[in-house]
User: Fold these one by one.
Assistant:
Number 1:
Amino acid sequence: MLSVSSTRLQRRLVTLSTFGGLPGGGVTRPAWSPHYEEARAWLLAEMRNAGLATWVDPAGNTFGGLGTTRLAGDRPVILTGSHIDTVPEGGVLDGALGVIAGLECLEVLSETRTAPKNPLAVAAWTDEEGRYGSLFGSRAFCGKLDAAKVADMAAVDGERLVDVMARAGFDARQAPEARTPAGSVAAYVELHIEQGPRLEEAGVQIGVVEAIVGVRRSRIIFRGQADHAGTTPMERRRDAFLAAADYALRAREHVVTRGSRRSVTNVGVVHVHPGASNIVPGRAELVHEMRDPDAAVLARLAQECQALADTVARERQIAVEVVPLSATTPALAAPRVQSSIEDACRALGFTSQRMDSAAGHDAQNLAAITDMGMLFIPSKGGRSHRVDEMSDGDAIERGANVLLHTLLALARK
Ligand SMILES: [Zn+2]
């Protein structure tokens, strides 16, 4: 039975981690940064050394192909991949694993002169972590990038997309041209670390993703009355922060008790105005996020939370405004890709369980244009988006071998 080279896979993961590597471990490699561009150049060279054809699309998505030199409608490609950008002070496996394992799988097929029916390709998607809007590269590839918005896109640090892309030799206004022709991808499968604790706690080796959750974000603005914090009697205060705090607690309770049991919720941004200790807060804004694998559940929860915000405001005699910020729809994995992953696990003697992905991934964009699937390996302690993110070497090898046999099964059909 074909298998990957664990040594080569580990060596490449270690080398990739040196681009933007931090002294105490972990890595900072945001999309389009000099470290990112060095890593991408290295990756292209590794792909070529592995015997793959390479190409880069106008959004910066970087491909290595086996049996193909591009993506076109005439010979549909079985595609794998992930991303090589990271969050600030991130781990060495988030994204990197899927790209390097995909490269390893294609190299094994190339070395052994295995020629599946469909050509195969591995992609490193640009800017998965959202320096310029989330999942930039796969959005462009799947035809979801709004050309009108590209010119104004800027990072939190103020750097404009047009400038960073120009520095790397790209014209940002052409990024939407990365849209792949209809029918060019026969299936997409991505290997990723779980980024949560469920597989490790269950003692299961491989997670087979059924759905990637949808995410809804709203800005909720409570308007009360700013007042002197010493002289205003307590019973007369219309404190906007207390309304926001009340809402945050009750919204959490509502989502936990009335959601789908898979629903999660977070308030991660709070602004209080004017923001002085001697002024009763006149305005408080928070960003409320909810996630669930079922679009109908998300829509219902959003409606109910709007009603809850109105109730809280009425009870506290202040005004409230709910502004929807973003809503991604849940993406379902294709049954045939899920069963190919499970067949590979069985053939290799690994345990697996079906699960949702509570984190966003490029695969959710690919689901709109082809049959999508994802597999997870356990993350130690469930840790991710931090420098001590890690998975066992054995788990990494298992994940890569399951990916290899899933790709083979999909490419033969
Ligand atoms: Zn990732």
Number 2:
Amino acid sequence: MTDWLIRNAQTVLTMDDAGAELSGVDIRVSDGVIAEIGTGLTSTGEVIDAASCVVTPGLVNTHHHLYQTLTRAVPGGQDALLFGWLQTLYPIWAKFGPEEMFISAQIGLAELAQSGCTLTSDHLYLYPNGARLDDTIAAAREVGLRFHPTRGSMSIGESDGGLPPDALVERESAILEDCIRVIDAFHDATEGAMVRVGVAPCSPFSVSRDLMREAALLARDKGVMLHTHLAENDEDVAYSQAHFGCRPGQYAEDLGWTGDDVWHAHCVKLDGAEIDLFARSRTGVAHCPCSNCRLGSGIAPVRAMRDAGVKVGLGVDGSASNDAGNLIGEARQALLLQRVTRGADAMSAREAMRIATRGGAEVLGRQDCGQIAVGKRADIAMWDVSGIESAGSWDPAALLLAGPTRVKHLLVEGRQIVRDGHVVTFDVSKAIRRQNALAARLA
Ligand SMILES: [Zn+2]
């Protein structure tokens, strides 16, 4: 493994407990870990001159559906609300197979890497034509991002009153068996793990109450995390009240879906009592501002969540509802959106960057990531602030107000994933050609 000396960084936003910002320092990386931070350091490894760079921990993406990079900007789904949007896309997704899952994940992961992301979760909840979670894990190994794939699922098809077509749902016993298979095959609980698997029924409106309960028992038995969509919009809350006789937070609590090992995507419609429940139980939230705007779902009460002590991270969400996968762009959107309802002092650029890095790492249970400190994993983003976007900025470290939207260099576990703005771990041009050919075939 290559050792590195990141030399003379203009500014380092450490995201450590004290929120320290350092100027003109070096960072020495050895064996995938941050070994030393200071001035005048030496190393036998490769040197990166960071004099024009703001250096941050790698950004952490807490919610995605990588397979959707193959269905961006589908005409019938461009202007629909959540349920109509899903019904447009389900028949297209039903044609996917292993290759579609692999290529779309490669593209989605490379897009994340370019935007500074070093650790991402993924929520794959449909497995047509022999597709498996394994396909996306293979893609992540090649691209080189730290990966938390979650074994999603849908079990209530149209004929049972659910939303997805019957062809896309699975038997609940088969779902649980495959969860066990992928956890046993891929989950790594050790510090510095590159792959951690989670259990993730798609949403309360596409699986049964029994599966939600069984999934929670299984995850706790195996020591893995739980993830699903919750309280995404008004339709979602209305479904909960009509079918379960309670709000989404109550439903989650009743089925064992709160706790330090659980994180829910969206949570746009959480009320005050639900925010208190999440804070008390240490339940995490994946805030997906662009997707929430794109689908007209609303503005998640992130300021109230943070003030109450809820763990919040960011998610780009699937590329059929964003339709981009730029994580630093998502951080800027998060800060803008809180200001729409709460005023210009509702969220600072530095707080939004903290949510994007340390916040996401906490949501995913990664105490070893999300900050630049000795002993933490060497997941490091370097942002060149000598370009047009930063010219004239009085505070280049306020990256989200004025700054680049792509990294110059990116390290994950000490491996260089992006060099001079380009992903260098696999043949990106070839993957783009294949992705476009597959998209054309699906259309
Ligand atoms: Zn989602």
